[in-house]
Design brief:
By secondary structure, the protein is mainly beta. 0% of the residues lie in helices and 51% in strands. It has no helices and eleven strands. Strands 2, 4, 5, 6, 9, 10 and 11 form a seven-stranded mixed sheet that branches. The protein has a four-stranded antiparallel sheet with strand order 1-3-8-7, with no helix packed on it.
Amino acid sequence: QVQLVESGGGLVQAGGSMRLSCAASIRTFSTYAMTMAWFRQAPGKEREFVTAISWSGGNTYYADSVKGRFTISRDNAKHTVYLQMNSLKPEDTADYYCAGGDRSSYWEPDYDYWGQGTQVTVSS
C-alpha cells in the first residue's frame, strides 16, 4: 500500500512563490515507477488536473493555466515529488492533491493513490 502525504501549503500573496512536497511511503520497490501528479480543487469547483511527471522525470505535463509558472519534479531516491509554484494568482487558491498511478494521464480515475491534500491560499 502506498501512502502519499502532502506538505508545504499555506498563505501567500499574489505574485509570490510556494513549494509543495509529496512524500510517498514505499512498501514495494515497484511503487517508485509510478507517474506522479498534482490535482487541485478550488472552493465550489471540481477537482482539476494541474501537472504530472513520468517515473523517470523525463516527461512532464501541465495544464494550460499553470504552464510557465509551475514546475513539477521528483526525487525517486527520496520517494518525493515537488511542485514549485511561481507567480501565484488568487485563482490558484485551492486544495492541492498529490496522486500516483501507472501511467501519465490528465484523468483522475487513472490514479490509484491520493494524498489528503494541502491548502494553498493566494491573497490579492
